[in-house]
Amino acid sequence: MRFFLDTADTEEIAQGLDWGMVDGVTTNPSLIAKQGLPYLGTVKKIAELVGEDRPVSGEVLATDYTTMMEEARRLAGLAPNVVVKVPLGPVGLKAVRTLRQEGTLCNVTLCFSPTQALLAAKAGAAYISPFVGRVDDISSDGMLLIEQIVEIYGNYDFETEILVASVRHPGHVAESAMMGADVATIPLKTLRQLYKHPLTDLGLERFLADWAKTGKSFDD
Q1: Beta-bridge mates of residue 163
Q2: Which domains are delineated in the chain?
Q3: Catalytic amino acids?
Q4: Per-residue pLDDT tens over the stretch 98-127
């Protein structure tokens, strides 16, 4: 499973890259707005920061086809690793099909049902982004959605990758990995949590304490 950071904060991205655990980045209008940064300039900066071998999903803002295509082409032109994020719906999937014909990779976002994921795959999406946390928020089962999409895609050998989004905690990541999802896009806070376990902390404390009692150094 690959890990993408879901952020517009370049300091967070730099931290994740330093840990060697970041395989790409997803961002969106809400995240960029919170940073108070210019839209296209931020996507371009992130794409340059992570390098050409890591995809960066930048989202269109338009809802009509003509403007959506204009924005998508501008995003794709920022850097070779920019993936165009497009919202699910008839207009969005029409844009995905056209962009696929032009050689542009698309990440279809705001997916909340297996049938939506099926449509995105048929349109030629490179990634589908089911929002598991938001499904959980309405008292449904976000992980069941991932299980259903994994099964459907496996039945038909679709090339679309399952990018689990709206991840709220490490359990979402673990269950997605067990089901065979391709990518989890997560905040840096959640990435930090993946490292944590109280027995790891306790074990390290004991190892160090036991060695300190010997009075010896690393070279002894």
Answers
A1: 183
A2: 2-214 (3.20.20.70)
A3: 85
A4: 999 999 999 999 999 999 999 999 999 999
